[in-house]
Amino acid sequence: LPMLILAWPAYVLAFVPVVAVEAHVGVRQLRLPWSTALRVTAIGNLWSTLLGVPLVWLSLLALEFVVGAVATLLNLGNAWEYLLFPFMIAWVGGDDVWVVYLAFCLLAIPFCVASIWIERKVAVRRLPDLPVERVRQWVRDANIWSYVLLVAVAVLYPLSIANAP
Hints:
The protein is mostly helical. Helix content is 81%, strand content 0%. The longest helix is centred in the first third of the chain and has 40 residues, at 34-73. It is globular, with a radius of gyration of 18 Å. The two termini are 28 Å apart. The model has no long low-confidence stretch (mean pLDDT 91).
């Protein structure tokens, strides 16, 4: 299963709440007006969602091919399958739905790193009157909050279904 099929729509659906959370952090940390925080956050998140997520996924898919090829050439045993899993999350196989949820959660790490990088560039450019380090800190903190919340929802959703009557 190419995880982009699940991850990208989930991030698109989460766009509005993520922008709200990240703008709230900007209002609190930088004392930005809501309109400014929403505008900067929305523009940055558009770039990171529409460009960053698919590019990161493609990079991870390339990494997965390399890691898979090396593992095959070295004839690594089944134990290595578990150790190499974090490098094989772009495209997962098998029947276990929990593997998909785990891959989705692990993908949040490189997606968050890319979002911070992309959104920092947007925020620094759009907020030239503010100290660059404070803007960078805002973008980092806001993205960490939004990705923690996204992963929490990703973890709670299957648990709520599993425990449903």
